[in-house]
Each structure stands twice: as C-alpha cells, then as structure tokens.
Write a structure and sequence with these properties.
Blueprint (H helix, E strand, L loop, with lengths): L4 H5 L19 E5 L2 E3 L3 E8 L5 E6 L4 E9 L10 E2 L7 E2 L1 E9 L6 E9 L7 E6 L3 E3 L15 E2 L4 E7 L8 E8 L4 E7 L15 E6 L5 E5 L10 E5 L4 E9 L7 E8 L6 E3 L2 E3 L3 E7 L6 E6 L5 E5 L7 E6 L3 E3 L8 E2 L4 E6 L7 E7 L4 E7 L9 E7 L9 E5 L27 E5 L4 E9 L9 E7 L4 E5 L11 H4 L2 E3 L3 E10 L9 E6 L5 E3 L3 E2 L5 E8 L7 E10 L7 E10 L9 E5 L2 E6 L4 E5 L6 E2 L2 E11 L7 E5 L6 E2 L4 E3 L5 E8 L7 E4 L1 E5 L14 E3 L3 E6 L3 E4 L3 E4 L3 E10 L7 E6 L5 E4 L4 E2 L5 E8 L6 E14 L2 E15 L3
C-alpha cells in the first residue's frame, strides 16, 4: 500500500450527497460558532442545531473550559418561516440556538475539546471546540474574491489564528491571501485546520484545503496539500530568505459549491513533523529528537505518562507531534546497516527507515508457547513510511531463515479501535500500521525485520514497534449502530431522569490478543451526586451487556464525565478496562469518515423527572427456544402527560428478539410486549427491563433526538429448552375424509400448566374439527381431528408445526415445535 494512497484519494471529487439520502433525522448540535478560541480568554459562542430547548449546562470531556451565561436565542427560520433544512441529509434540520461564553483557562490543553449539552430533558449529541495558543481574529470577508490577490491580501502579524471561510459560491473557487511581515532568517510556519474543526456530520472535499507561502513577488517558497502529520489539513514552514513581506495563500484543492470554515495559524513557531524515538517508558524522562523543522532538528526532554497510551508534544505549535508511552524500555536500531540489534523482549523497537532499500533488524530469543504482539506505530505518529514487518527464524548458520510471519496494513480492531467505520481507510492513520499476534512454535532465535513497503524511506521515516505479550484489555464501547454511523442518542445518550432509571447496551471488546477475564462486575467512577449503577454480574465472554443507572428523586440535575471499571470475580485476574466511543465527522454514505472524534470516557447527566414511569409483571415462566412470551406492561402517566409512548426491552440477551416496539397511543396505558426466543438462544438467565420513549412527529425517532427515555425497575429473564417436542409421521387423507393426525410428545421439563395445542400450516381445504387437544404433564401423544373438503388442495404439504400455548402466573408463553407432513389424495 503506497504511503499517500489514501491521502491522494481525499483530493479526488466524490459524488455529492443529495436530499434523497435515507432520512436519518436531526442531531442536536449541527454548528458551533466560532470554532476556535485562544486559551486564557473568554469567547462568546453560538451553538445551533435541533431540539436544543432549555439548555442548562455545557459539559466538556477535558478540563480547561467552563461555559457561563447560557441563554436560549430566538429560533432559526428559513425564508418560509420554518426550520432550516440541511440538504445533505434527509430529515436533518436546524431550528434552535443558544448562546454562552466559554471561559478558557490559561493552562487549558490545546487542540480539540468535545462537549455535550445538558438540556432540561436530555443529553445532546456531540459538539466540538478547539483551543489555539494564539490570539484569534476573523477574516471578515463578506463576499467572495475580495482578498484573493496579492494587492488585496489581508495584513496580519505573526503568531495569530485567523478564523476564515471558504466560499462555495460563484463561478470559481475562493482564495484567501494574507500579508505577513518578513524578517530574513526568521521561520514562518502556517497550519490550516479544516477537516479537524469541521462540525458537519456529512461533508465532501470542501474540507480539503491547500496552502502556499509566497515571497513579495508571488514566487512560491513552500506549498502543501496533504501531509503525514495532519492528513488533509495542510502545513507549511520555511526559513524566510529576506526582509520585507511574505504572503500566505489558502484555497481548496478541489472546487466545491459549499461553504466551509477553516482556521489558519500563522506564526514563527517551530514545526517538527515527527519525534525520534517516538516514545519512551512510562513514568520516565525521555530525550527525543524533533525532526522535519526547516530550521533543523532539535531535542527536548519529555515527561512520559505513567500509563501506556499515546501522548502529545506541542512545543509552541498549535498542533502536536504524537508519541507513545509504553511499559517497557526502548531499544534503538543498530547503527551498522543490516546488522540486527540484540534485543530482549518485551521492548519498544525504534528506528528510522532512511532509504528505499533499508531494512532494520532485531534479533531476540523466544520459547515455545510464548505469545507476542508486534504493534507498529509509524503512520500513527506522523512517519512518512508505510511500515511492514517480517519475522524470520534464525538457523544454526546465523543467516536469515524462512519467513514465519509478515504483515503490512491493519484493520481498526487490530489497534483496538471499535464502533465506527473506515471503509476506505481515510482519516485513520493506524490502518497503515500492522499489528499482529504471534504464537511461538519452537524454542530458538528470531529476527524481526522492519521496512517501508512503498520502497521510499527518508529522514522522517520513523517507526516504533511495541513487542510484548498482549495486554488483557477490555474496551467498553458505546456504539451508535445506526445508518452511516451517525450518533444516535437513543443508543448512546446517558440522560438519567430524576427519580428514574436508564438502561443502555454496552459493547464489550477484548483488545487484540487479550483474554476475557471471566465473570466480572461493572464499577462506575465519577457519577453525579444521587446516581448509582445498578449492579449486574457480566458473564464471561459476552460481547455486549446492559448498564443501568438510577437517579434518586432528589439528585441535583447535573452532568459529569464518568468511566467504567471491570472488576473480575476472580481477584487473581487482572484486566484494564478502557471506555471508548468513536464518532464520525465529515461522514459519507456508508459511514466512510474522513475524520473521527475519539473519546475515552463518557458523559452522564441527570435531567428533570420523566413524564411517565413503567411497570411490568416480571416473567414468572421462562422463555423457551422457538417460543414466544407475552409480558404485560403498564405506563403510569404523570398529570398532564397524554402523549404516545414507545416501549422496547432495554436490552435483550443473544438469541432473544422483540419484533416491533409496543406503541401505546395517547389515552392508552397498558399493553403486551412480546418476546421471541431463537432456536439456538443460549440457555441463560439475564437482566431484563423495559425502556419507554416519548414519540415525535419528525424524523428524530431514528436517532432519538428530542425524546425522553426512562427504564423500568430491572428483573430477570430465563431462556430455557422447549417444554415439549412434538413429532409426527406422514399422514395421507382423501378429499371428503376425516382422520386423526397423531403427534408424539416428548417432555423435556415439567409443564407449568395445561397447554392448548394448535396445528399450523394446513393447506387450503383442510380444517380442524374442534375441540383442540389439551396437553398436560405425562401425556405421551395428542391427536387433531382433521377433515379434507372436496376443494382440498391435492398433493403433499411438509411445513406443518404446532403452537403450544401455556398460561401460567397470568402470562402467556407460546412454543413452536415439530415438523409434520400431510398428503391430500383424490376421492375414491
């Protein structure tokens, strides 16, 4: 795979989405203005979207920003007085807006700050805001083409962030040019944020910008479109040749007739592109060389985080170089070309593929049965190479032996990234870097080779291979799991009403090569006051499981950032739990995201009391395989609430389904929710509760925006083997004849009560003569009396089965069983 294959693909015009796309409905936050502010300042922000009534609090995932002065603004209206329809996505619209001030602390971390808004009744979809180290000003171009020449360039001073707009109007693409004072020998660096600050959930190449630095005569000093550091957000840096002025030109790589926001950082800051080594050992100091700056490399001593993770080095730049913190020491490549570095694993192997034919080698010993993970970080940390690894045995003569393993690119799950789609690999650097598990088959020495599969190499061809036994990590994933992977509050919105409860499904993914810890309990950290996690024990190996939070009636409405821990039942088992939610922005049909906001914690909010509560009769009998169970449900309406309510299980065990939601219209408060057990449903007992949602008239049902959800008190549901199995032999009957159709009964477990049996699938012209047989415990066979009329369809029918209907404890369970055949013959 060539190094810039996916970057080049970003510059190719893509098919524009139209209003005929599948209606997915609105998300709460569609636009945040401005997109960027300087740390140490207070910025007035307007947030626009759908169903943003009564905003109460803005909750950030990271520290450093506080929202004050929240107020509702008048609704947005189109020329006809209605909401503003978003043409790219059917059903999406903007109508409500709010204003507040973001107080940005002087020590606020730079870069992206995701947030959610707590309204009176819900927790919104995700929004983002970005923090710059520089003063921020607006471009203030009111019409296109007013600053697209050197003579009309906007004058700016260095170390400034300009918030600009790329117009998509007119007959040609917009160009924005800025004039900067130039000092001979001084560094001029330009970084553009476009894709990284986009808050469009759908988008195209309007976010693919290019930048040029020009001298006073318009001659090109530096140019960039795509790069390994920031992908399609360009960056250029140059040592200025003379005093005077220089120009910064920002434009689109491909003309698009759609407006898009950008920020351009113009300054004298250093701009390294990658670090070597690209990480260090947890909790220690690490001296690194920063490479790629036009004024030459320089060194920094960095504090490595105490836990294994990625971490950032900003220096004085607005965007970081990414590094790795690992639990094991660094090993550097052998300076003698081709000679393997003697290595003791586990270790982090670090080198630079500086030429097209260079291969770095590391020799190590391994024992039979050893399990090692080789995880590469090259593109991930901004390297220019497409790293490939090859593992060879070392025979007695010491020469390179046979290839045991080779790997080039990766899937997202190879790097423990779950819950979103990267169909073409765009926007996810990790997919360029291999990560594999190797099980050693015999004692011996081995050599790991690292090379550039694109055959280029270069001075920025840094790589890092973390070679160690795989970690037992569990990833708790909130998955939107709807069309195009857009965020859906109905599956991820952790809004718990006062005096109520909410259940959501959490996906449980082991890290690459990791093991499930067996049974474990969830433990929540950081919950708001008055909120508790309903305890449930997770079975070992489950791919998903419910989590339910309850807020007391006096819990203060508030939001908080929370994390979840996995506490194994066996205390000897150690496992690290990581929360994860990955949400695509600048998305395309099918969920082909250019960029994704990646979260490692969740936000939970306490909202106002719900307009209804749910009561149901806990199942007194098990749901059997190939059977159905009717559960009586009742909603208790608060005074004044008469709206419709949609009811579904808050979570269903594998193999159990609820075919359609139970809809209780206005004026109705009781009904039955029907469950079906699959023929291979696991025979287990699982948590069970029912979640109700208010209903709206727009498309918001699909994503859940604007709905109030509440879950009942939990119970348990048991899936059991069928009570009975019925079998029969082929029966032939002539037209005009009556016969008994006999079925043998095999009892698997005691019947909880008498059961009526219905024969299903009879052909046209054949009827059952009542009464229907009743099945009780110990009965060995039952018989239906059937009659074939003169109009009975001749021939063989082989799709007959029986419905066994049992009433016990006020609940009805239906089991399907048997497979019978009937042949209709002519009259004699």
């Amino acid at each position: 795979m060539k190094r810039f294959l996916f970057l080049v693909a970003l510059s190719v015009p893509l098919l524009a989405l139209t209003g005929t796309a599948l209606a997915v409905g609105p998300t709460n936050i569609e636009r945040t203005l401005p997109r960027t502010g300087q740390r140490g300042t207070t910025v007035e922000v307007i947030i626009q979207g759908a169903i943003l009534q009564d905003p109460k609090e803005v909750i950030f995932f990271r520290p450093g920003i506080r929202a004050i002065g929240i107020e509702q603004l008048p609704d947005l209206k189109d020329r006809n007085g209605g909401p503003i329809q978003l043409a790219l996505v059917g059903g999406a619209f903007m109508q409500q807006q709010m204003r507040c001030k973001f107080e940005i602390a002087p020590d606020c971390p730079l870069g992206e700050h995701p947030f959610r808004i707590r309204t009176a009744t819900e927790l919104t979809t995700l929004g983002t805001f970005h923090v710059s180290p520089f003063p921020c000003v607006d471009e203030n171009e009111t019409t296109p083409y007013t600053n697209d020449t050197l003579t009309t360039a906007v004058p700016v001073k260095p170390n400034l962030t300009v918030r600009g707009l790329m117009y998509g109007r007119g007959t040609r693409g917009d160009v924005d040019i800025y004039r900067v004072p130039a000092v001979a020998g001084q560094q001029l660096t330009v970084e553009v944020d476009s894709a990284r600050i986009a808050d469009n959930h759908y988008g195209d190449s309007e976010f693919d910008l290019a930048v040029r630095i020009l001298d006073e005569a318009g001659r090109e000093l530096a140019v960039n479109d795509d790069n390994p550091l920031n992908l399609q957000d360009p960056v250029a840096s140059v040592k200025l040749p003379r005093d005077g002025v220089a120009y910064v030109e920002v434009k689109r790589s491909v003309y698009q007739q759609r407006d898009s926001q950008y920020c351009v950082h113009i300054g004298t800051f250093r701009r390294p592109m990658v670090a070597f080594p690209a990480g260090g050992q947890c909790g220690q100091k690490q001296v690194v060389r920063l490479l790629g700056d036009p004024l030459g490399e320089f060194t920094e001593s960095l504090d490595v985080p105490t836990t294994p993770s990625g971490f950032d080095y900003f220096g004085n730049a607005p965007s970081p170089v990414t590094l790795r913190a690992s639990s094991y020491p660094n090993v550097l490549e052998n300076p003698q070309p081709g000679e393997p570095a003697a290595t003791q694993l586990p270790a982090a192997l670090n080198g630079i593929i500086s030429g097209p034919d260079e291969v770095d080698r590391y020799r190590f010993a391994a024992k039979k049965g050893a399990r090692l993970q080789f995880r590469v970080f090259a593109a991930t940390v901004g390297s220019t190479i497409d790293a490939k690894i090859v593992l060879r045995s070392v025979p007695a003569d010491g020469k390179p032996g046979k290839v045991i393993l080779e790997s080039d690119d990766a899937k997202p799950t190879d790097h423990d990234i779950f819950g979103t789609s990267f169909r073409s690999g765009a926007g996810l650097k990790e997919m360029m870097d291999p990560s594999v598990i190797w099980d050693c088959a015999e004692d011996g020495d081995y050599v790991l080779e690292v090379l550039d599969s694109s055959g280029v190499g270069g001075p920025l061809g840094v790589y890092r291979v973390e070679a160690a036994p795989p970690r037992d990590n569990l990833f708790f994933v909130l998955n939107s799991n709807v069309f195009d992977w857009c965020e859906a509050t109905r599956t991820t919105g952790l809004a718990v009403p006062q005096g109520g409860s909410l259940m959501l499904t959490l996906f449980i993914m082991p890290g690459q090569g990791g093991r499930f810890p067996g049974e474990f309990d969830f433990v929540a950290h950081g919950l708001p006051k008055g909120v508790t996690l309903v305890p449930t024990r997770v079975r070992g190996g489950e791919a998903y499981w419910p989590v339910q939070f309850t807020a007391s009636a006096d819990a203060p409405p508030a939001g908080a950032v929370i994390t979840l821990e996995a506490r194994p039942v066996n205390p000897a088992i150690k496992v690290t739990a990581v929360c994860q939610q990955n949400l695509p922005f600048i998305n395309h049909s099918g969920g082909d995201a250019w960029r994704t906001v990646r979260l490692d914690r969740f936000i939970l909010a306490v909202t106002e009391p719900p307009p209804f509560s749910i009561e149901f009769q806990p199942p007194s009998i098990p749901l059997v395989r190939s059977g159905g169970l009717a559960i009586p449900v009742k909603i208790v309406r608060r005074p004044g609430f008469e709206g419709a309510v949609s009811l579904l299980p808050g979570w269903l065990a594998p193999g159990v389904t609820a075919s359609v939601p139970l809809l209780l219209p206005a004026g109705k408060s009781e009904g039955e929710l029907r469950l079906t057990g699959g023929p291979n449903a696991p025979l287990v007992t699982s948590p069970f509760a029912i979640t109700g949602s208010t209903v709206r008239d727009d498309f918001s049902d699909y994503v859940g925006t604007g709905h109030i959800r509440v879950t009942s008190v939990p119970s348990l549901l048991t899936v059991a083997a069928p009570f009975v199995e019925l079998t029969s032999t082929l029966l032939s009957i002539r037209r005009g004849e009556r016969k008994k159709f006999v079925w043998a009964v095999r009892h698997n477990s005691p019947l909880p009560g008498p059961a009526q049996v219905r024969l299903l699938g009879l052909p046209t012209g054949v009827r059952i003569v009542e009464p229907l047989p009743v099945l009780t415990q110990g009965v060995a066979e039952i018989a239906f009396e059937i009659e074939a009329t003169d109009d009975a369809l001749l021939g063989r029918t082989g799709e007959l089965n029986c419905a066994v209907v049992i009433n016990a404890g006020g609940q009805e369970i239906e089991q399907r069983t048997g497979k019978g055949a009937l042949r209709i013959d002519p009259k004699l």
